[in-house]
Amino acid sequence: MDLTHRPRRLRQDRVRGLVSETSLEPTDLIAPIFVDATTDERVPIESMPGHERVPIDEAVARVEEVRETGVEAVMVFGIPASKDPEGSRAWAEDGVVQEATRRISAETDAYVITDVCLCEYTDHGHCGPLEAELRGDTDVGEGGPACDPTLTVDNDATLGALDRIAVSHAEAGADMIAPSGMMDGMVAAIREGLDRDGFEHVPIMSYAAKYESAFYGPFRDAADGAPSFGNRRHYQMDPANAREALREVRLDVEQGADVLMVKPALPYLDIVGSLRREFDHPVAAYNVSGEYAMLHAAAEKGWLELEAVALESLLSIKRAGADLILTYFAEDVAAEL
Ligand code: PBG
């Protein structure tokens, strides 16, 4: 055969590394951790094998475990001791994230990112206080509120709360703030709050293109943040939309977002790729709980080889254009690398 082009020449073992286009480092990864104010001992999260909710007293130990694998950054989620319609434990000085962050930043070198949202803190489980028409009608466990089902979260009332939460996290020592509630204007509100209170140096990683995804299921068990009625489609994005993601992200860029996140990751790699092409900011992708749980479930059945599919997933997310990846595989994959 007279073949000029033989791509296989560069697939031989000793040259593969030289021509590989993408690499994965432990320092690209962020490990989510769950700190739970309602427990004194570690509680395994059933749908996320290998992950636990840890009491505040064990937050530092949990972060040290992460750091030992070479992963330097954590994303802190909190399960509060109590909930109310406004989610007021979210900005309490002695709140669960504030307390954990204070200890982690004092006692470790980890880079601490905090999730800023209200869904784990409101008794109705939505990502902010409800619109006026719904207030007082929050006993909606069964069929949902009697009134208009399109009413959910009061966007503008939520912004003030997000400002307070972000500042309280920064005061506790958070290195980076990550708002995940998909409220319009949330980045501007938080940027203004942080700057006003002397935290100009604290960057914002916006969950800029966060979809209303069924892949969050295991997380909602883990963090106890499922909405008690309705869903999040009036604030999180429609999975059908790609151009809208660019519009969402552009708004967050105008409001001062430093890092742009796409979430979930694997079903939305087209969005990761288009953000990479359209913007110069670092792009983050959140390999969410459902993406983790499904690989574990298949591996448990003996249908997939866990280490291999985990590594391939993260490599693919990087190849699509992500600079950093939030993933429950962070420790396992980092230990492999
Ligand atoms: C809270 C939040 C969620 C996730 C991260 N932050 C849940 C949601 O929006 O329902 C999901 C993370 C995951 O599934 O791993 N706003």
From TrEMBL:
The active site is at 210 (schiff-base intermediate with substrate), 263 (schiff-base intermediate with substrate). SUPFAM superfamilies: Aldolase. It catalyses: 2 5-aminolevulinate = porphobilinogen + 2 H2O + H(+). 5-aminolevulinate 1 binds at residues 220, 232. One of its GO terms (cellular component) is cytosol. Coiled coil: none annotated. Pathway: Porphyrin-containing compound metabolism; protoporphyrin-IX biosynthesis; coproporphyrinogen-III from 5-aminolevulinate: step 1/4. Mg(2+) binds at residue 248. GO terms for biological process: protoporphyrinogen IX biosynthetic process. The keyword Magnesium applies. SMART domains: ALAD (SM01004). Zn(2+) binds at residues 117, 119, 127. Its EC number is 4.2.1.24. InterPro entries: ALAD, ALAD_AS, Aldolase_TIM. Pfam families: ALAD. Keywords: Heme biosynthesis, Lyase, Magnesium, Metal-binding, Porphyrin biosynthesis, Zinc. One of its GO terms (molecular function) is porphobilinogen synthase activity. Belongs to the ALAD family. NCBIfam families: PRK09283.1. Homooctamer. This is Delta-aminolevulinic acid dehydratase. It comes from Natronolimnohabitans innermongolicus JCM 12255.
